[in-house]
Design goal:
By secondary structure, the chain is of the alpha/beta class. The chain has eight helices and eleven strands. The longest helix has 13 residues. The structure holds phosphoribosyl ATP and magnesium ion.
Amino acid sequence: MVTLALSKGRILEESIPLLERAGIVPEEDLAKTRRLIVGTNIPDVQLVVIRAADVPTYVRYGAADLGIAGKDVLLEDGGDGLYELADLDIARCRLMVAEPDHGGAGAAGRTWTRLRVATKYVKITERHFAAQGIQADIIHLYGSMELAPLVGLADRIVDLVSSGRTLAANGLKAVEHVLDVSAWLVANRAAMKTKYEALRPVIAALAGERKI
Ligand code: PRT
Ligand code: MG
């Protein structure tokens, strides 16, 4: 059995047409089903649909042989035990540093001195600022980073931007580019040795070389 882990949410939306082009047809509508394990038209291929941030963990431990995950999630995870096989060129966006358009609430009444940055991407953000010689205090949030500078929780945020509408709607502007992001096909390192014959056609189909 080959198990492919898919990221829920916006990567899933773009993974569905990718599977279709690869000739892999899920037995249930992935956008609607409540099942977490879904079989496919290929007898030895099954899908698991999980939180985006959990994909590297499933693949690392071999609970899934293959996975589709954003480069943002992979870099933050560190990628131990994984091979990054192919850029699937879906779910494209940019990881950016952003700040209030007009100075913001943080600056005036604030009691802290060091730069405060709110983000879901603690490791990537630490590395980004350290590379510029800036010691930033990183505030770890799980979502809605755009709110943090508006209520004086942080000076800046590091978050994903695609159309730019979310930043604009909250009076923020992108000031630095951190990383170009897209979803990648990843594999468990051990499975690439022990199950290569089974994985090969699935990898080739997903990477767009030939239908399964
Ligand atoms: O539910 P969970 O907490 O696990 O994740 P989530 O709800 O934050 O995001 P989800 O599951 O929909 O997908 C996350 C993955 O999609 C990321 O890891 C990226 O690889 C990829 N991706 C691509 C994006 C975006 N584009 C994106 N624009 N993930 C999030 N966004 C958000 C961004 O955080 C911001 O709030 O969309 C907003 C900005 O969009 P614009 O168009 O207004 O600029
Ligand atoms: Mg979500």
